[in-house]
Design a protein that fits this description.
Two copies of one chain form a homodimer.
Chain A: H1 5-12, H2 15-25, E1 29-30, H3 31-37, H4 42-54, E2 58-63, E3 66-71, H5 73-103
Antiparallel strand pairs in A: 1-3, 2-3
Helix pairs in contact in A: 3-4
Chain A binds a DNA duplex through helix 3 and helix 4.
Chain lengths: 110, 110
DNA sequence: TCTCTGTGCAATCACATGGTTGCACAAAGA
DNA sequence: TCTTTGTGCAACCATGTGATTGCACAGAGA
């Protein structure tokens, strides 16, 4: 269930990819356009875009001879919802354990 | 703002760490106990727990001579909320651009 | 005390990955 | 047509990292 989630997190676990996503958040752009704004080569950016596209965080559209990329927020929302559910489950179990522990007769520890 | 987020995603971008988190989700455990259940060495698990602890996804408590770890769901919830906000923002801008585009007189393309 | 168990630290290794440069090629514009 | 610009592909390199083994040490129990 969470299997498909891990690559998304791996993709999000890189600073450069976040700067790419941030740049795309202000409007679609091609790899070359991004390379003008960011301190990395176009090829490096193309690789990152490949990673992001593979996990659905960006989409690409051909415009003439250039490939424009767009950040896909929906994927983030889906991921966020799953994350929240998992976190809530852990805390639920934790508080359940706490409640049980507190209902027990106190054990004396010397 | 998102700067502290990236290490969390990097920590979540590994299958083994997810199995550790999943195991901890069913109850606190030490590195050695986890090594009995998972197909990796104790030292490898200890490293992973170090990574997870550094980003606040697990906490440790000394019980006698053993170190017990617990999954912290709250950190996931915080992360999930930030993710959702970012995703919503991207989609908001995207739909805003769409709305503008659709309100414009249609351009003829030959 | 002797033994077993759980940690901690270090060295090592293989592989993934972020980054670069170089070259080739196709399409838009002068 | 010639030049420019944007891609695509490949080789290469350095570093990070997931994982291992080995050893040392401290605490709990027989």
């Amino acid at each position: 269930m969470t299997a498909m989630l891990v690559p998304v997190f791996a993709a999000l676990g890189d600073e450069t990819r976040w700067s790419i996503l941030a740049a795309l958040g202000e409007g679609d752009a091609s790899a070359s356009a991004l390379a003008d704004r960011l301190p990395v080569s176009r090829q490096a950016i193309a690789k990152h875009l490949g990673v992001l596209q593979q996990v659905g965080l960006v989409e690409s559209v051909r415009v003439g001879r250039e490939l424009r990329f767009r950040a896909v927020g929906a994927e983030l929302s889906v991921t966020a919802r799953k994350l929240d559910a998992i976190g809530a489950e852990w805390d639920r179990r934790l508080s359940a354990i706490k409640a049980i522990a507190e209902s027990l007769p106190r054990l004396e520890v010397e």
